[in-house]
């Protein structure tokens, strides 16, 4: 019999068990901590809100604080002490912060500084910010929202941001959400700014395109259409009727609630003639 090497069956030491335990704990703990730090549903105290709004190094903290302020407003809690912070975030360079701030400012239609800030945001360069702003302005009864609300009822064209060689990353009938990668133009990523279904691809694969050239046409999104119709019930004018009436008949993929809302909105607008 061949003699065993010294320590061939030696059990792992305490250090090895400790390392294994720490590794296993990390597998559980790290995902939890990531979720805990990024989940916006986690309740924040008043002190947390103050701290998160003051933390300019982590934009997600400010977004978490904005969402929590909005939740308090929806539940009838007084969140007015943070209203100046909401207005400040409306001028942030971050798309998500401006978009969230616009939504929140539509929750309190008695606060005139919100109305004034929204009138500036309606001209934002990002469609999702303008759409949230338009819905909020409609709550104030402000007709400045109308052009953007009508745009929400129409197809959306994604344009090339730069010149270069085109390479698509999607196909016809794909449904896209904000942030979905649509194409590369040269080395530049082109991401979708709004949701919708791809109705057409406007250029040949590999074509050389210029900045501003249309790349893809998207259908109007059913949820955005419904929200726009509800808002136009308040601020719509006869000039908007043609766009509204297109949805008074069934549209493939759209629920019956859209048809009913379109009919209600059309009748309300016609009463303003």
Structural commentary:
The chain has eleven helices and eight strands. By secondary structure, the protein is α+β, with helices and mostly antiparallel strands. The protein has three domains: 102 residues, Leucine-rich Repeat Variant (Alpha Horseshoe), CATH 1.25.10; 63 residues, RNA polymerase II/Efflux pump adaptor protein, barrel-sandwich hybrid domain (OB fold (Dihydrolipoamide Acetyltransferase, E2P)); 50 residues, no CATH class. The strands form two sheets. A four-stranded antiparallel sheet has the order 1-8-6-3, with no helix packed on it. It has a four-stranded antiparallel sheet with strand order 5-4-2-7, with no helix packed on it. The longest helix is centred in the first third of the chain and has 25 residues. It is globular. About 5% of the residues have low confidence.
CATH topology of the largest domain: Leucine-rich Repeat Variant
Class inferred from helices and paired strands: alpha+beta
CATH homology group of the largest domain = Leucine-rich Repeat Variant
Biggest sheet features? 4 strands, antiparallel
Give the helix/strand layout.
Elements: H1 14-38, H2 46-54, H3 59-74, H4 83-89, H5 95-105, H6 112-121, H7 127-139, H8 146-152, E1 156-159, E2 164-168, E3 175-176, E4 181-185, E5 188-191, E6 196-201, E7 208-209, E8 214-218, H9 222-235, H10 241-245, H11 256-270
Antiparallel strand pairs: 1-8, 2-4, 2-7, 3-6, 4-5, 6-8
Helix pairs in contact: 2-3, 3-5, 4-5, 5-7, 6-7, 7-8, 7-9, 8-9, 9-11
């Amino acid at each position: 019999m061949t003699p065993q090497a010294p320590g061939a069956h030696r059990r792992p030491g305490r250090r090895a068990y400790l390392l294994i335990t720490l590794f296993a704990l990390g597998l559980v703990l790290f995902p939890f901590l990531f979720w805990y730090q990024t989940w916006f549903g986690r309740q924040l105290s008043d002190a947390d809100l103050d701290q998160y709004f003051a933390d300019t190094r982590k934009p997600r903290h400010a977004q978490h604080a904005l969402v929590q302020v909005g939740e308090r407003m929806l539940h009838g809690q007084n969140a007015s002490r943070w209203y100046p912070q909401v207005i400040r975030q409306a001028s942030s360079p971050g798309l998500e912060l401006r978009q969230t701030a616009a939504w929140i400012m539509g929750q309190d239609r008695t606060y005139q500084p919100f109305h004034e800030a929204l009138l500036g945001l309606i001209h934002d360069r990002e469609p999702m910010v303008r759409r949230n702003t338009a819905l909020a302005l409609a709550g104030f009864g402000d007709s400045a929202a109308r052009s953007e609300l009508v745009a929400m009822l129409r197809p959306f064209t994604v344009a090339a941001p730069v010149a270069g060689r085109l390479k698509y990353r999607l196909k016809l009938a794909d449904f896209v959400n904000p942030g979905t990668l649509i194409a590369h133009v040269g080395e530049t990523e082109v991401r979708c700014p709004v949701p919708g279904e791809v109705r057409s691809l406007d250029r040949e694969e590999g074509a050389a395109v210029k900045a501003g050239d249309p790349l893809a046409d998207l259908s109007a999104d059913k949820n955005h259409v419904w929200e726009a119709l509800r808002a136009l019930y308040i601020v719509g004018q006869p000039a908007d009727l043609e766009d509204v009436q297109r949805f008074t008949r069934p549209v493939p993929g759209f629920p019956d609630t859209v048809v009913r809302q379109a009919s209600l909105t059309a009748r309300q607008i016609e009463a303003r003639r």
